[in-house]
């Protein structure tokens, strides 16, 4: 079944590649650089997924493995900057995005302070 | 049609004032979504911190291949929709419809892989953390926590994607009817932001579910 | 009295005359009409919550309990908490006065997203209906905090249904907050800079920040709880290694800032009323404005002080305790600034001002006792006693409900076009103040003596305090029923209100009472600073 899936996937990738060829920078003036920017970002993100997948196959300490999230954060940032064009539009768009990250940091930071500093006392089952 | 399309509500100074505000509103909504999923991520931190061995033992049983393919599918889906936005801004409405339809199909492919194939496979292996859970012994508790996180997290993400599919379908319909065009793009942009955001959530879920637990 | 009251009738129809059908109300996108819809809805819930607590106070007249069943008692106080927090206090000022006034105060014709505004009311009504179904089916017995694992695994109440109701009302609150923030950023009239905005808008903005960034966490938390409740397995289950304290962390990440959702708008209302009835500029405008923002931000950093005695890490508890003291600073600055505003002002004791003064006194007491419970060692003694109950009722009821009534009386002429009977207004303000203190001051004492909250019986030596408290509750009930009667009466028989009956500043007082649908015939241009009151003028007017 896995092989079937992989086959279907590479097939659809081929169709997409054909679609992108029709949008290639040479043919359409004005939008070429934006299209190539999008395609480049897409390629970089796929490479990052590949790296993330590859690194995850390596053996390293369980405590260190959340480091893999760094690649996800980079990909998320790329998606926000290039696909969602966060640089465009009124400045409050950026304000809202930054605020959300700051509050996420508060939630995860102050929230995980407790489990990471908590002392667990073992109770004998008697 | 054209005049009606660029009309604006009476609290705005102009159509572009209204359009920019709609986009800003979506950014703020996405900020609420960030903290919404943030609570889920905190539950992951707690569960893994207190039960690292069991949690990872559960994670090792997840379907890495399907997860990875789905990640590629969603990234591509975001790309295709963004390409469509570039095209419709230049007045290429038909090309936009093609792109948005491709994005929609990719989203559907994700849903089928995730829920029709992966979930069924997981359930067949007794990975639902209920009475006949497939992992026993010392690690069962932590593994149950992982699979609770898995089913809950993928379900909530799936609901978001389903909403995204509905919105993209609506945008395709309205563009096809001529209601949205280069002159009035706000809904197309707003839906695009949401669509890519659902992808971003998955980019974080992907290592949390499939990669971090595979230490061995 | 003055020229302002003798003026030509407005040319435009008022928003109340813009359609008389039910449909014209239920499908309206006018922020003013939605405010009225909300006002009616939350009034209903206020009295539902009030009835529940009347039974609780009745039960506590006798040490062994007037109601025989502890289970029934648990369901009554839980329903009181759920209804009052999510269906009255959190929405109270923002969705009624805020909805009505925000566009008027920034000089806009409506909010940024009028249809989302209507949607938020419908979500609220749906949530209310789900809650009423849960109530009718038997209610919940977990307290308003839904602590796990009682709520997730053991409770016999309708927890899932109540949780769904709270999730839906949360989305309603997010919709409102989002609308407010975007409107304040994008729809201010020409010349309306941030520092020309009334403080009420600063506090609504700060409130909205909390609504938008805290409520989603509550939604996710209660979804996790519902998941665990339905499938009997989940992230909070201690038998498989889950951490029930995780629930408390997530719950209080929302619910502590939510306490400030319930007080910040009240502070905004008071900041409008004190200068108007002292005929003096607001003292230290920028401090009051920025203190709202500071309270909103710091409120997110203190949630762990609800968990000092739960087994939370002591290091964590220490940090949360210190940060909790920090949040008291901006609140205190505001109190001093209101007092500074009144100093040497020309003070008029009309009903809004009486309620506002009540707010300052009661909130100060609630705030100062908050410092006791924020202290790690003191909290070990005070945690889960009636001291805590008294503390947060002084803030939420003494503070917020007083402020809601203050604002309701202040803007009643603007909203309805009618004046309420002033003598009745003053009488009700005094009865509420007396009744409130009689109800809750004994709870400080009985709590300090060691009476725990949420038990349906208590040792006989606490009876005198409990009887006093229940007697106070009866007085309070009269105080709350009075405005319902005379405000309704004023709709039919009240004197017509002029554009600016209080001689107040602010854009909302420059448009007719009640305002036309489009708020302003031409979009105003703002040149004056806020609170441009001149005491000398007030003296002339009353000479």
Taking Cα atoms only, what radius of gyration of chain B do you get, to the nearest Å?
21 Å
- Fraction of residues in helix of chain A: 55-70%
User: How many DSSP-defined strands of chain B?
Assistant: 0
What's the pLDDT, averaged over the residues of chain B? 93
Explain this structure to me?
The complex is a heterotrimer of chains A (126), B (216) and C (543). Chain A has 126 residues and is mainly alpha-helical. Chain A is 70% helix and 0% strand. The longest helix of chain A has 26 residues, at 32-57. Chain B is elongated and about 65 Å long. Residues 1-5 of chain B have low confidence and may be disordered. Chain B has one domain (54-211): Four Helix Bundle (Hemerythrin (Met), subunit A). Chain C has 543 residues and is mainly α. Chain C has helices at 22-26, 31-59, 70-89, 92-106, 114-137, 150-154, 159-186, 199-231, 244-261, 264-278, 285-298, 314-342, 351-374, 376-382, 386-416, 422-448, 463-493, 535-542. Mean pLDDT of chain C is 94; it is low at 1-10. Chain C is globular. Chain C contains 18 helices and no strands. The chains are: A mainly alpha (126), B mainly alpha (216), C mainly alpha (543). At the A-B interface, α1, α2, α3 and α4 of A face α2, α3, α4, α5 and α7 of B.
What is shown here, in short?
Chain A is mainly alpha-helical.
Q: What is the fold's blueprint, element by element?
A:
The complex is a heterotrimer of chains A (126), B (216) and C (543).
Chain A: H1 2-22, H2 32-57, H3 69-83, H4 92-117
Helix pairs in contact in A: 2-3
Chain B: H1 2-5, H2 15-50, H3 52-59, H4 64-89, H5 93-124, H6 140-176, H7 186-211
Helix pairs in contact in B: 2-3, 2-6, 2-7, 3-6, 4-5, 4-7, 5-6, 6-7
Chain C: H1 22-26, H2 31-59, H3 70-89, H4 92-106, H5 114-137, H6 150-154, H7 159-186, H8 199-231, H9 244-261, H10 264-278, H11 285-298, H12 314-342, H13 351-374, H14 376-382, H15 386-416, H16 422-448, H17 463-493, H18 535-542
Throw out a few tags for this protein.
heterotrimer, A: 126 residues, mainly alpha, 4 helices, C: 543 residues
């Amino acid at each position: 079944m896995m092989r079937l899936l992989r086959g279907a996937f590479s097939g659809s990738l081929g169709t997409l590649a054909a679609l992108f060829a029709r949008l290639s920078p040479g043919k359409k003036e004005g939008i070429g650089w934006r299209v190539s920017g999008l395609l480049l970002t897409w390629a970089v993100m796929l490479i990052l997924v590949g790296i993330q997948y590859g690194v995850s196959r390596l053996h390293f300490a369980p405590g260190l493995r959340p480091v893999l999230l760094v690649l996800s954060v980079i990909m998320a940032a790329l998606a926000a900057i290039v696909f969602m064009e966060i640089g465009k539009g009124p400045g409050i768009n950026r304000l809202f995005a930054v605020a959300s990250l700051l509050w996420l940091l508060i939630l995860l930071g102050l929230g995980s302070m407790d489990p990471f500093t908590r002392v667990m006392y073992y109770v004998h089952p008697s | 049609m054209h005049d009606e399309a660029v009309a604006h509500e009476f609290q705005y100074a102009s159509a572009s004032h209204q359009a920019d505000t709609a986009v800003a509103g979506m950014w703020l909504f996405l900020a609420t979504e960030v903290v919404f999923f943030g609570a889920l991520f905190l539950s992951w931190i707690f569960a893994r911190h207190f039960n690292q061995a069991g949690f990872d033992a559960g994670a090792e049983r997840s379907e890495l291949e399907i997860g990875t393919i789905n990640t590629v599918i969603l990234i591509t889906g975001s790309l295709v929709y963004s390409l469509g936005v570039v095209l419709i801004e230049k007045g290429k409405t038909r090309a936009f419809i093609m792109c948005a339809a491709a994005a929609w199909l990719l989203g559907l492919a994700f849903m089928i892989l995730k829920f029709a194939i992966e979930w069924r496979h997981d359930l067949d292996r007794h990975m639902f953390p209920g009475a006949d859970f497939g992992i026993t012994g010392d690690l069962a508790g932590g593994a149950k926590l992982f699979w609770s996180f898995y089913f809950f997290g993928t379900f909530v993400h799936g609901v978001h994607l389903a909403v995204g599919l509905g919105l993209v379908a609506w945008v395709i319909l309205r563009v096809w009817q001529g209601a949205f065009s280069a002159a009035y793009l706000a809904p197309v942009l707003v839906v695009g932001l949401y669509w890519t955001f659902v992808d971003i959530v998955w980019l974080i879920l992907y290592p949390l579910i499939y990669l971090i637990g595979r230490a061995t | 009295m003055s020229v302002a009251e003798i003026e030509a009738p407005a040319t435009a129809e008022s928003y109340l005359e813009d359609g008389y059908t039910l449909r014209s109300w239920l499908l309206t996108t006018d922020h003013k009409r939605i405010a009225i819809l909300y006002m009616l809805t939350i009034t209903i819930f206020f009295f539902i919550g009030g009835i529940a607590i009347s039974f609780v106070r009745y039960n506590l007249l006798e040490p062994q309990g007037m109601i025989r069943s502890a289970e029934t008692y648990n369901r009554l106080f839980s329903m009181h908490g759920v209804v009052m927090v999510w269906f009255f206090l959190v929405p109270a000022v923002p969705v009624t006065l805020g909805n009505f006034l925000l566009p008027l105060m920034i000089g806009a014709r409506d909010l940024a997203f009028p249809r989302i505004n209507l949607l938020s009311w419908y979500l609220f009504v749906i949530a209310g209906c789900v809650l009423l179904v849960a109530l009718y089916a038997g209610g919940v017995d977990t307290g308003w905090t839904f602590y796990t694992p009682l709520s997730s695994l053991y409770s016999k109440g309708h927890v899932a249904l109540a949780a769904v109701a709270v999730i839906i009302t949360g989305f309603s609150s997010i919709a409102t907050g989002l609308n407010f923030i975007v409107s304040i950023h994008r729809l201010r009239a020409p010349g309306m800079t941030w520092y020309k905005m009334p403080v009420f808008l600063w506090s609504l903005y700060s409130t909205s920040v909390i609504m938008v960034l805290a409520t989603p966490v509550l939604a996710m938390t209660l979804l996790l709880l519902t998941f665990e409740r339905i499938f009997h397995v989940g992230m909070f289950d201690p038998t498989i290694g889950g951490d029930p304290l995780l629930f408390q962390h997530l719950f209080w990440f929302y619910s502590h800032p939510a306490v400030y959702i319930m007080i910040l708008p009240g502070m905004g209302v008071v900041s409008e009323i004190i200068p108007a009835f002292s005929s003096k500029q607001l003292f230290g405008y920028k401090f009051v404005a920025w203190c709202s923002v500071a309270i909103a931000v710091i409120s997110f950093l203190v949630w762990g002080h609800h968990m000092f005695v739960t087994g939370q890490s002591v290091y964590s508890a220490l940090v949360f305790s210190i940060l909790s003291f920090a949040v008291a600073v901006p609140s205190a600055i505001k109190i001093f600034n209101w007092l500074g505003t009144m100093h040497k002002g020309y003070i008029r004791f009309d009903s809004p001002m009486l309620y506002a003064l009540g707010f300052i006194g009661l909130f100060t007491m609630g705030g100062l006792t908050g410092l006791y419970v924020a202290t790690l060692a003191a909290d070990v003694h005070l945690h889960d006693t009636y001291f805590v109950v008294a503390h947060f009722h002084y803030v939420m009821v003494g503070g917020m409900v007083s402020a809601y009534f203050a604002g309701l009386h202040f803007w009643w002429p603007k909203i309805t076009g009618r004046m309420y009977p002033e003598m009745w207004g003053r009488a009700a303000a005094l009865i509420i103040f007396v009744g409130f203190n009689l109800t809750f001051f004994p709870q400080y004492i009985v709590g300090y003596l060691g009476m725990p909250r949420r038990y349906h019986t208590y040792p006989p030596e606490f009876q005198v305090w409990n009887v006093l408290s229940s007697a106070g509750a009866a007085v309070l009930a009269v105080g709350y029923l009075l405005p319902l009667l005379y405000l309704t009466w004023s709709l039919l028989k009240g004197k017509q209100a002029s554009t600016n009956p209080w001689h107040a500043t602010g854009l909302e007082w420059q448009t007719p009472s009640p305002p036309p649908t489009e708020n302003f015939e031409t979009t105003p241009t703002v040149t004056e600073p806020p609170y441009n009151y001149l005491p000398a003028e007030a003296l002339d007017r009353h000479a």
